[in-house]
Amino acid sequence: MSSTATDVVRLLTVNGGTLAVAESLTGGLVAAEITSVPGASKAFRGSVTAYATDLKHRLLGVDATLLAQRGAVDPQVAAQMAAGVRAALGADWGIATTGVAGPDPQDGQAVGTVFVAVHGPPGAGSRSAGGGKVEHLRLNGDRAEIRMESARSVLALLLRELEGEQTGNERAQDTERNGGF
Q1: Is residue 24 predicted with pLDDT exceeding 60?
Q2: Residue-number span of the structural domain to which 105 is assigned
Q3: pLDDT value of position 122
Q4: What is the mean pLDDT of the chain?
Q5: In this structure, how many other beta carbons lie within 10 angstroms of the beta carbon of residue 90?
Q6: Can you give the residue ranges of the CinA C-terminal domain (predicted)?
Q7: What CATH number is given to the structural domain containing 105?
Q8: Of 165, 12, 29, 148, the residue nearest 92 (C-alpha)
Q9: How many CB atoms lie within 10 A of CB 120?
Q10: Nearest CA among 99, 124, 121, 87 for reference residue 30
């Protein structure tokens, strides 16, 4: 069980937030990390493992033209997966992974090319523009290492966003306590 997953569940629970996960290359590893945390059921809504490209469109609402033109390993696809799973499962936050774990390149992308995304309430988090953020990773290692690092990275991205939201809430409370100054 990772401390990042524990921190994510703790912050979501404290803030009354919920999470949904969309996974491709990680194949359920992110959901497994989250559900390994005692009390995860207070915050975790569920996950969609959309390994096949057509499922990204059918289940998560990823634009079919985007998938046809760029393939599944693309930053916009990751962003749409995160937003789509958030909407489909009725969660406050959605996170997503898509990429190439190997052994062969996919959609013109090299092994180790990964996109992780988070989509939260508008204006939430420390770095979210319009509720979403995508990170492009270039990972080394074998298939298992790339998949594990992708899962770790998406949870770390979400944790940074949740910590930013927490900091923003504390600042707002300080402003209220100090008469708006």
Answers
A1: yes
A2: 3-177
A3: 78
A4: 90
A5: 10
A6: 3-161
A7: 3.90.950.20
A8: 12
A9: 26
A10: 99
Which one, of 90, 89, 111, 91, lies nearest residue 99 by Cα? 111
Q: What is the pLDDT of residues 2-14, one digit of tens each?
A: 799 999 999 999 9
CA angle centred on 121, ends 120 and 126, rounded to 5°: 65
| 41 DSSP 8-state letter | G
CA neighbor of 120 nearest in space, from 112, 108, 111, 128:
128
If we measure between CA atoms, which residue out of 71, 22, 30 comes closest to residue 50?
A: 22
Structure tokens at 6: 């524990």
Q: How far out from the chain centre does Cα 16 lie?
A: 18
Count structural domains, the chain: 1
Between CA 160 and CA 118 the distance in angstroms is 10
Token duo for residue 134: 């995508």
The pLDDT score that the predictor gives to residue 170 is 54
Tokens in use for 102? 């190997």
Q: Is the CB of residue 96 less than 8 Å from the CB of residue 81?
A: yes
